[in-house]
Amino acid sequence: MTLQQLKYVVATAEKGTVSEAAQSLFISQPSLTNAIRELEKEMNITIFIRTNKGITVSKEGEVFLGYARQVLEQASLLEEKYCGKQHGKRQFCISTQHYSFAVNAFVDLIKEFGGDEYDFSIRETQTHEIIEDVARMKSELGILYLNDFNEPVLSKEIKSKELKFTELFSAKPHVFVGSANPLAQKKSVTLDDLLPYPYLSFEQGEYNSFYYSEEILSTIKRPKNIRVRDRATLFNLLIGLNGYTICSGVIDEKLNGSDIVAVPLEAEGSMRIGIVTHKKVLSNPLTEFYINALKKYIGEETRLTT
């Protein structure tokens, strides 16, 4: 196995076809096909499934590609440090629940490491996908919360995939409401106060169980429920329908505007928000910078809500 072969399989996965990958790598299609097959034979795995319509990455191939990207990134960092060489686009990906501080830290990361070319991704996605992305090394890290209710289930899944959870901070329950909502003027609200208003939550797909919910107190029955996939839609509905969602209370007015207000919720429990990383993946300067940026914004935003 060589670094060149790893570059070949990563490029092929990114392009989606052998012909496009060969063109981008400036080699012939037969040469690329042979190099990939030799690597598959050596590693005793099938990285790509070949069909009449093209190729798809196998499940074991996704895991292999995760390791391959890590090896290539570490090799690139070594050459940059000791040879002064720069190798094309920097790549970095995180998967996260819907937190403004995650976006702010991502902006800082790009400003610091983006340069002239980069390929960075931030996925605000479902809880199960966050864990899967980190397990398959599609993402360098994930951001989600644990509490007394979901921890037995999520911690078991995190551990089974050789991941670890590191807490960043603990937050008491709050609600996000529109600034025009009558609840926005209260110092705190109760669950009974919320009954007349629509409850908004993030949809979790086939893993739409209480344990994977992004919102604390997910088991409580509510008369009006709306599920959404993205933060912008949720915030628009908070304002347009006088709805609410239950959250950590950490919000950035610069990013989300002044139309959304965080109000403390009188309820038991807390959210331990933290990062999920792979035990077998070495940290790198981009990951370390991003985590430090997270801590900076968490400190700034939590001061604004207390």
From TrEMBL:
Keyword DNA-binding: yes
Occurrences of domain HTH lysR-type (ranges): 1-58
Leader sequence residues: none
Record Gene3D superfamilies: Periplasmic binding protein-like II, Winged helix-like DNA-binding domain superfamily/Winged helix DNA-binding domain
CDD domains to which the protein is assigned, alphabetical: PBP2_LTTR_substrate (cd05466)
Gene Ontology molecular function terms on file: DNA binding; DNA-binding transcription factor activity
Alphabetic keyword roster: DNA-binding, Transcription, Transcription regulation
One GO cellular component term noted in the UniProt record for this chain: protein-DNA complex
One Pfam entry name: LysR_substrate
Keyword Transcription attributed: yes
Family label: Belongs to the LysR transcriptional regulatory family.
Protein name, as recorded: LysR family transcriptional regulator
Species name: Hominimerdicola aceti
